[in-house]
Amino acid sequence: MDKMWAGRFEKALDQTADDFNSSLHFDCRMFRQDIQGSMAHAAMLGAKKIISPEDASLIVETLGAILADLENGTLTFAEGGEDIHMFVEAELTKRIGDVGKRLHTARSRNDQVALDLRLYLRDEGQAVISMIRELIGVLAEKAGTYKKTIMPGYTHLQRAQPVTFGHHLLAYAMMLIRDAGRFQDALARMNVSPLGCCALAGTTYDTDREMTARELGFDGIMWNSLDGVSDRDFCVEMASACSLLMTHLSRFSEEIILWSSWEFKFIELDDAYTTGSSIMPQKKNSDMAELVRGKTGRVNGNLMALLTMLKGLPLAYNKDMQEDKESIFDSIDTVKKCLEVFTPMIATMKVLPENMLTAAQKGFINATDLADYLVKKGVPFRSAYKTVGRAVGKCVAENRVLEALSLEEFKAFDPLFEEDLYREISLETCVEKRISAGGTSAESIDRQIALITEFLKK
Fold first, then answer.
1. Which residue is catalytic, options 57, 130, 261, 277?
2. Between 74 and which of 43, 69, 85, 424 could a Cys-Cys bridge form, CB atoms 3.0 to 4.6 Å apart?
């Protein structure tokens, strides 16, 4: 197949070099966006009389037929094609001859690929946002169910204070809301059209870039042609949003893995989202969560690859930028695959409240509440802290819990202790007393769920 740019050259490209140069095998996924952009460009050329309206109409009609044939499988991507842009143009020319050759007037592959990538990532970004919202909805529903299920909260992976399982789940819901916002922000900055910037300097034709921008659903145009063809900030932003989303899913996965172990046994994953061992018949492995945790590394690596690829590039377009696609495509694909399995895994997991409560009853996680009890009686917090620390030390030495100490033993530490301390340090009271905004009380969780519900309505 002759190259579209072959006129300048006296011999064919070396086959190995041709294969190395080709991007059709991965950028062919943008065929819809490429044809969509070409149809808008052809319509503009006709409207501005740069090509005849009749030729423009024939080009648009034929591009529509090519799109239909690609979607139904009648047309397949030919081996040896250079990229999706040349493939579509070659097929167009094959079908309507010289009229098809007019399509590339006032356009370059440089602005064409920038356009296609923005259109593609705009579609994919919206798809990811929808999947994030679905997971948020699952978490909010489960949080409502388990808003009074007491579990130990941890710092340094040591039992710290009592929380509820619903409260813990909502922490991840809040992370995911921010993730959705990051994708939305990236899409907003991405939604400007580079079409018409041409190779780097614009064109001598009297084009209407605002027309094509409106036709393609953009908010406006890129106002500097050099920036228009060389900008890949939007890829980096999208990759960054993917990376942080995966980081949150990875943190969640780590806890799922811990919680489903026999050492914790706070939850049990559904059989549909676990695997067994080839040698140990008792095993039920949380492989889906482990894979999400593992795949975070490749998404982080894609972000670094994009940043490294861009860091030394002079203006304007350079072939290095062909490396943007596989990285961002892989990040998007990985995120979608992870969300696709993660959401039903969470929706179907079995929660074991009794085990959570048993764990919460150990580790002195009500010690802060005991200190607060003294503070409310006028003791400075730091003094109360030391008093309770001595009480905890006694319990550790005697293998007891705070609730097991008698009132006389408490009074030996401070005479201000009274019988009502036992109600104050019960786990249920410890949880329900945390009435500050964002705390772990059931009332606070209801407010958080209401905020999430409002978010999901938008």
1. 277
2. 69
